[in-house]
Amino acid sequence: MKQETTVAFIGAGSMAEALISGMTKTLYQPEQMVVTNRSDAKRLEYMQQTYGVRIETDKEKAVSEADIIILAMKPKDAAEGIASVAHVINEQQLIISLLAGVTTEAIVSLIGKQVAVVRAMPNTSAAIGQSATAIALGHYATDAHLAIAKTLFETVGIVAVVQEQDLHAVTGLSGSGPAYVYYLVEAMEKAADEIGLDRAVAKDLILQTIIGAAHMLKATNKHPSVLRKEVTSPGGTTEAGIGVLEHYRYQEAVIACIKRATERSEELGQALLSSVK
Ligand SMILES: NC(=O)C1=CN([C@@H]2O[C@H](COP(=O)(O)OP(=O)(O)OC[C@H]3O[C@@H](n4cnc5c(N)ncnc54)[C@H](OP(=O)(O)O)[C@@H]3O)[C@@H](O)[C@H]2O)C=CC1
Ligand SMILES: O=C(O)[C@@H]1CCC=N1
C-alpha cells in the first residue's frame, strides 16, 4: 500500500473499529484513514483518540479525498448513506463494501456511476489480525482492484477470493461465526457456575480449551470428528456429555443456525433493493 493512499470509512461502528484496529497495527498509518459517520460525534472522537485516525463530520469531504472508500454502515442505512455521497464519488476510486447481503450491482446502481466495487465479508477478529475474510469482484472492478482489496484485508487476517453469489453463505458462516463461538463460551461459563467452579478459574480453563482446540484443528489437520473421538473414552465423561448434545440435536441446531444466517443475508440485500424501488 503506497504511503499516501487514503482510506475513508463511512460508518464508525464495530466492524469499522475492528478493521481500523487491525490495519493500524500493520501497513497503514493512522493518518491515512479518515472516519465519518451519520451523527455520533462522541464515537468519532473515541476513534480519533484510540487509533489516531483522522475524523470528519463532513462526509462529502472525507469521501471526495479518499482513494478507497469503505462502506461500513448497516445495510438498512446503506441507501441513504450511499446516496448522500454518490455525487462526490468518481470512477478512479475503489469502493469496498462490508454490507451484509447487498450486491455490488445494487451499490453501483445507488452510486449511479461505473465504479469499481469489491464486496468483502470480514469478521470482528480483524481487530487482532485474525479475521477470516472473503472478497468478491463487482462488475467494474478489475484484478488490480481485487489485489488492492486482498492486500488491505491480509493486514487483518486471511483472505479467500470467492464468487459474489457465495458471499451470503460466507456471511452466515464466518461473518457471523465469531458470535456462535462466543455463544458457546457463554454457555460454558453458565455451566461452570452451575457446577460450582470458581468463575475466574473457569474463565481461564474455558479460554485455553477453545484456543487449544482451534490450534489442534490447525496444527494436526485432522478431521474434527477424529479429534473428537480422541477425547472420547468409551464409557467416559465425554461420551456421556456428547450424548446429551445429540439428544438436543446440537449439530442440527448449528447447521440450521448457519442456514438461517445465510438466508438472512439474502433478505438484507432484497430489503435494500425494495427500499430504493
Ligand atoms: N459487526 C460485524 O461483525 C460485521 C459487520 N459487517 C457489516 O459491516 C457493516 C457495519 O456493521 P457494524 O459495524 O456492526 O454496525 P454498527 O451499527 O456498529 O455501525 C454502523 C455505523 O454506520 C454509521 N451510519 C449509519 N448511517 C449512516 C449514514 N447515512 N452515513 C454515514 N454513516 C452512517 C453509524 O453512524 P451513527 O452511529 O452516527 O448513526 C455507525 O457508525 C454492516 O453492513 C454489516 O453488515 C460485516 C462483517 C462483520
Ligand atoms: O449480523 C450481521 O448482520 C453482521 C454481518 C455479519 C456479522 N455481523
What does the model show?
- It is an enzyme of class 1 (oxidoreductase).
- One of its GO terms (cellular component) is cytoplasm.
- Catalyzes the reduction of 1-pyrroline-5-carboxylate (PCA) to L-proline.
- Pathway: Amino-acid biosynthesis; L-proline biosynthesis; L-proline from L-glutamate 5-semialdehyde: step 1/1.
- It is found in: Cytoplasm.
- With 277 residues, the protein is of the alpha/beta class.
- The chain folds into two domains: 161 residues, Rossmann fold (3-Layer(aba) Sandwich), CATH 3.40.50.720; 83 residues, ProC C-terminal domain-like fold (Orthogonal Bundle).
- 55% of the residues lie in helices and 13% in strands.
- It contains twelve helices and eight strands.
- It has an eight-stranded mixed β-sheet, with helices on both faces.
- Helix 6 links the parallel strand 7 and strand 8.
- The radius of gyration is 21 Å and the shape is elongated.
- The site of (2S)-3,4-dihydro-2H-pyrrole-2-carboxylic acid has 4 residues, from helix 7.
Which SSEs are present, and which pair or pack?
Blueprint: E1 7-10, H1 14-23, E2 33-36, H2 41-51, E3 54-55, H3 59-64, E4 68-71, H4 75-83, E5 94-97, H5 104-111, E6 116-121, E7 131-137, H6 143-154, E8 157-161, H7 167-175, H8 177-194, H9 199-220, H10 224-231, H11 237-247, H12 250-276
(2S)-3,4-dihydro-2H-pyrrole-2-carboxylic acid binds at residues 100, 171, 175-176.
